[in-house]
Amino acid sequence: MEVVVLDPRTDPRYAGELDLRYRVLRAPLGLGRDRVGFDGEVEALHVVATDGPAVVGCVLFDFASGRLRAMAVDPSRQRTGLGARLVHRLEREIAARGVAEVALHARAGVVGFYERLGYAVRGEPFEEVGVTHRHMAKALL
């Protein structure tokens, strides 16, 4: 398995990343494929895990908002350390580019995962895409 930075403008594996994000993040909520991306996505930093040609994990950082905007790991690879590996790689990449803090909106069920990685909850729970989320953040520099 390889963890790499992917350029969505030129890398054919981007289609696999979009499919993974749809299957893991949107389809279970009954949302369509049109709800996978976000404005400015092609300028975001995409860190992906690949196993041969398959994309099995991804995490994106949106420089415009200062947020980790999406993270997905194939269900067969969850609870293997892959998610932590992806987040750590993303943190190294953005810290090297001068980003001092990363924020995110964590679904309630994964708050503990991010807490184990050093993220802290900020504020009250809120709803996003029909699911309870928490604001979280971590200082990098």
Summarize this structure briefly:
The protein has helices spanning 14-26, 82-96, 111-116; strands at 2-6, 45-51, 54-62, 67-73, 101-107, 120-128, 131-139. It has 141 residues and is an alpha+beta fold.
Layout of strands and helices, then pairs:
Elements lengths: L1 E5 L7 H13 L18 E7 L2 E9 L4 E7 L8 H15 L4 E7 L3 H6 L3 E9 L2 E9 L2
Parallel strand pairs: 4-5
Antiparallel strand pairs: 1-2, 2-3, 3-4, 5-7, 6-7
Overview of this protein structure:
This protein has a domain at 2-99: Gcn5-related N-acetyltransferase (GNAT) (Aminopeptidase, 3-Layer(aba) Sandwich), CATH 3.40.630. The chain is 24% helix and 38% strand. The protein has three helices and seven strands, in the order βαβββαβαββ. It has helices at residues 14-26, 82-96, 111-116, and strands spanning 2-6, 45-51, 54-62, 67-73, 101-107, 120-128, 131-139. Strands 1-2-3-4-5-7-6 form a seven-stranded mixed β-sheet. The longest helix has 15 residues, at 82-96. It starts with a strand and ends with a strand.
Biggest β-sheet: count, sense, barrel?
A: 7 strands, mixed
CATH class category name of the domain at 2-99? Alpha Beta
Q: What pattern of helices and strands is seen along the backbone?
A: EHEEEHEHEE
Contiguous low-pLDDT stretches (5 residues minimum) are none
Query: Percent range for helical residues?
Result: 10-25%
